[in-house]
Write a structure and sequence with these properties.
Blueprint (H helix, E strand, L loop, with lengths): L5 H11 L4 E5 L6 H14 L1 E6 L4 H15 L2 E6 L2 E5 L3 H12 L6
Parallel strand pairs: 1-2
Antiparallel strand pairs: 2-4, 3-4
């Protein structure tokens, strides 16, 4: 899995600032429908916000970890009830891998 450094994470956080939450997770928690909607959002946007209505911070942290693990995404930030996750497009991953092997950095 690709690692994100602090500069990349900061740039993604800045990009996410003006984004509205794609999914709101209620008291029912993660369901198959929620996972599918999150996957659809990541496939089309790469970077998404999620609003969690749960009042427990530890539960939200565990929820963030579970979402990222299931969807092969990166946790970018967790502030209050808002989670931000990122998953690069499949084509972008392949191009990055190919250019890295050739010694060319992608801009």
């Amino acid at each position: 899995m690709l690692k994100l450094n602090s500069t990349q994470r900061r740039l993604l956080l800045a990009r996410a600032h003006h984004i509205n939450p794609v999914v709101i997770i209620g008291k029912e928690g993660l369901s198959i429908g929620v996972i599918k909607e999150l996957d659809r959002g990541l496939s089309s946007h790469e970077l998404i916000k999620i609003k969690v209505l749960s009042g427990d911070r530890k539960a939200r942290t565990l929820l963030l970890e579970e979402i990222c693990q299931r969807l092969n995404a990166f946790p970018i930030n967790h502030i209050g009830k808002i989670l931000i996750i990122y998953r690069p497009e499949a084509d972008a991953k392949e191009e990055t891998t190919e250019s890295t092997h050739r010694g060319i950095t992608r801009k």
